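Hi, here's the filled form for the chain we discussed.

Project: internal
Contact: R.S.
Residues: 133
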Amino acid sequence: MPPGRYTLKLTVDGHSSTQTVTVRNDPRSPATLMALRAQDSLLVRISHAMHVAFGGAQQGVTLRTALTAATRGMAASETAAEMAGALVATIDSLTEESPSSSFRSLNSTFARQLTAQDNGDMVPTQAEPAPSC
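And the returned structure, exactly as it came back:
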């Protein structure tokens, strides 16, 4: 969160309280307000990419479960069974932890990038393009 004035709102059991706070930059940081805003923008985009990757993994698991249930006990042709098996294998490759292109591994990569960027207090370099989803 870049330095600035923010209004906080807390609601508990239907009762709300608001207060304005001022966030100041770490005095040890050489980062300018412009750099901090650029960094915050990148952090928001990385966070969004993490949510998209996690959602993809969840959808894959849901699809695999539905496909497995739909084909269980079905007197399908050998070709249909092979196609269903291939689709399940593809879904597994996208939702498992090990493949580098899986949704879970992408989520982990984005989490590491989020941590690295959050600790940086500097403008993102051109070599660190924002994820696009």
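Let me know if anything looks off before we file it.
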